[in-house]
Write a structure and sequence with these properties.
334 residues; alpha/beta; inorganic pyrophosphatase (n-terminal core); 2 domains; 6-stranded parallel β-sheet; 6-stranded mixed β-sheet; 12 helices; 12 strands; binds manganese (II) ion
Length: 334
């Protein structure tokens, strides 16, 4: 399938491919709180580099959520530790709106001669030597699709599976951010062996019972603020303990809040380790959650974003977020 890239995108693809062809040893990494786009894009590119006869290693800050472990090569993915000592020729940072989203892995990234940044977040400042950033792609997986097509002239079945997963999940099951060429890319991935039903089952229909029990507890403190059409819930460490769950068991909770007709802004507050509280935000209207998240050092997209707080309680974080929403409404930024 021939899909025409814009002149600038085509130029970036050929510049990146020049580096991929010339250099030998590649480090691939992605953002903390790995999602389907992060891991799918990363593994597809890893596989393509291997097929091109290159040496490659994937090092991530976080482990891969269980729902994505059906993807190929996930057992080869390393979790960052200070013992990993590598000097890659090139580091490729994938799907990261900023360099600190890679966590400590950036220490390894900095050792590379050349750093490449491939991402579709609007706020990406372009932190690498070579930056291919364009928010007009539905997923970073879509960008990697064009990159591999150019590099290897084809896409393997395994890579197609990874990239399909990336696009499926980052578009919220083909709801958000679909571009005119997205379905062309998806069609090609299916032609190359990506199995939509199998992937959807793995990602969406294999939820452990314990996670539903956690959802039950979380729904117990669901709140709705009528004036701002805001809906949110909090998940405490105590809830995780009671249900024997982990953060990855909250996958999809935010999407449930998004389904609420009365809500325009939704968020989920989660107590994590080391005094960290994480907030995921979604907007269904004009309200810009990326702008909100950026007030607290976070980022993302206009309609989906996140941020972290350290040393605050769930209630304190809740208040901070609500205050900021209020402020933005008063400034008319919604
Ligand atoms: Mn993404």
């Amino acid at each position: 399938m021939e899909i025409q890239l814009s002149l600038n995108d085509a130029k970036k693809v050929s510049e990146i491919c020049e580096i991929l062809e010339k250099e030998r040893y590649f480090l691939l990494t992605t953002h903390r709180n790995i999602d389907g786009d992060a891991i799918g894009s990363e593994i597809a590119l890893y596989s393509a580099l291997k097929r091109a006869g290159k040496e490659a290693i994937i090092v991530n800050y976080d482990s891969i959520p269980a729902i994505y472990r059906f993807l190929p090569y996930t057992k080869r993915v390393h979790i960052y530790s200070s013992e990993i000592s590598i000097t890659p020729d090139v580091a490729i940072v994938i799907d990261c709106g900023s360099s600190d989203r890679t966590g400590n892995v950036f220490k390894l990234v900095k050792k590379a001669k050349i750093v490449v940044n491939i991402d579709h977040h609007f706020s990406n400042p372009g932190f690498a030597h070579l930056n291919w950033t364009n928010h007009n792609f539905s997923a970073t997986g879509e960008m990697v699709y064009f990159l591999i097509s150019y590099l290897n002239r084809d896409i393997s079945r395994k890579e197609a599976e990874c990239l399909y997963t990336a696009i499926l999940t980052d578009t919220g099951s083909f709801i958000y951010n679909i571009k005119p060429f997205t379905m062309g890319v998806v069609q090609d991935l299916i032609n190359r062996g990506a199995a939509p039903e199998k992937i959807a089952k793995k990602v969406y229909l294999e939820r452990p019972l314990r996670s539903i029990k956690l959802l039950y507890l979380a729904l117990g403190n669901l709140k709705f603020e009528r004036e701002r059409k805001t809906c949110w819930m909090k998940i405490s460490r105590d809830m995780y303990r009671k249900t024997r769950t982990k953060e990855e068991d909250t996958e999809g909770f935010i999407d449930l809040l998004v389904k609420i007709k009365e809500a325009n802004i939704v968020f989920l507050i989660k107590e994590a380790h080391n005094n960290v509280v994480k907030v995921s935000l979604r907007s269904k209207g004009r309200f810009d959650v990326e702008c909100l998240a950026s007030k607290f050092g976070g980022g993302g997209h206009k309609k989906a974003a996140g941020c972290y707080f350290t040393g605050l309680s769930l209630d304190e974080v809740e208040q901070k977020v609500l205050n900021e929403i209020d402020k933005m409404f008063q400034k008319g930024r919604m």
